[in-house]
Amino acid sequence: MNIPQITLNDGNTIPQLGFGVYKVAPDEAERIVSDALEAGYRHIDTARLYGNEAGVGRAIVNSGIPREELFITTKLWNDDHGRQSAFDAIDASLERLGLDRVDLYLIHWPVPARGKYVETWEALEEIKAAGQADSIGVSNFLPHHLQDLFDATETVPAVNQIELHPKHSRPQMRSFCAEHGIAVESWGPLGQGKYALLEESAITSVAQQHGKSPAQVVLRWHLQHDLIVFPKTANRERARQNIDLFDFALSSDDMAAIDGLEEGLRIGGDPDEIG
Ligand code: NAD
């Protein structure tokens, strides 16, 4: 499986397509991630919040895949903001994963009400320097949160992982990140199965033309917008389908038709409110 790599602003590379494990039950994580690794995924996106880091870790060990061939992301949860809490949080995540480093460590939400995302970011800079995370980034940060990091710290986040799908495609946010050299990761890339996204005629007609499923068309749309994407599924057949994206391409008309679905329909909460 030849999955494209994206070069981050710190020089590290990330597989553009991965596998997400939000809402994968802890007792199912090992089986589901093992299947994903067998299907060819090498990039796994987890978080302390998901409660399944240990299962992800067992699947990694059992796979026998050399560590350097894998790209593992986890995230610092909202009640772990603050310098010492961040150090404790990465230690605990690494222990659950059974790893001595992750490839990418993210602040899950900015939680402005706690007023600690700058301090937490400085802790992530130290975590990177200590070798516990090769790259560091953020998630659900809006431009003004990012600006606070630019103003106060030395490191521009390597990625911003944000809700992004055709019904909430965030062109301004994408431009802002591109201007600052921040790679964008799309969470909820399939709209989490909501809003009947995969039944939209703009998508089903393109799918029919290419002999692909609507999910494959949407994932291809993300890839062709240079987004990093890691769809989630507990279903083996769908996991195989979601990685089978490299034998077709959307035309500029196809892309424009899907871009036209944008209507600012958010699944998640407001990053200024959550926490
Ligand atoms: P998603 O858009 O990947 O949707 C997953 C759902 O889509 C599945 O449960 C299934 O119902 C459907 N689906 C998957 N493959 C399909 C197929 N081939 N055909 C038809 N339907 C299919 O949503 P997600 O899981 O929320 O997002 C992906 C990943 O992003 C997560 O697993 C997690 O790693 C990450 N995430 C991060 C945040 C954050 O705040 N940083 C929030 C949510 C998710």
From TrEMBL:
Q: Which UniProt keywords apply?
A: NADP, Oxidoreductase
Q: Which residues form a coiled coil?
A: none
Sites marked Lowers pKa of active site Tyr: 75
Ranges of residues in domain NADP-dependent oxidoreductase: 23-262
Instruction: Work out whether the entry's keyword set contains Oxidoreductase.
Output: yes
Chain residues that bind substrate: 108
Q: Give one GO term, molecular function aspect.
A: oxidoreductase activity, acting on the CH-OH group of donors, NAD or NADP as acceptor
Q: Where in the sequence is the active site?
A: 50 (proton donor)
Q: Does the keyword Transmembrane apply?
A: no
A Pfam family of this chain? Aldo_ket_red
Please give the InterPro entries that the UniProt record associates with this protein: AKR, Aldo/ket_reductase_CS, NAD(P)_OxRdtase_dom_sf, NADP_OxRdtase_dom
Family note: Belongs to the aldo/keto reductase family.
Query: Which PANTHER family does the record associate with it?
Result: 2,5-DIKETO-D-GLUCONIC ACID REDUCTASE (PTHR43827), NADP-DEPENDENT OXIDOREDUCTASE DOMAIN-CONTAINING PROTEIN (PTHR43827:SF3)
* Name under which the protein is recorded: Diketogulonate reductase-like aldo/keto reductase
Which source organism does the UniProt entry give? Bogoriella caseilytica
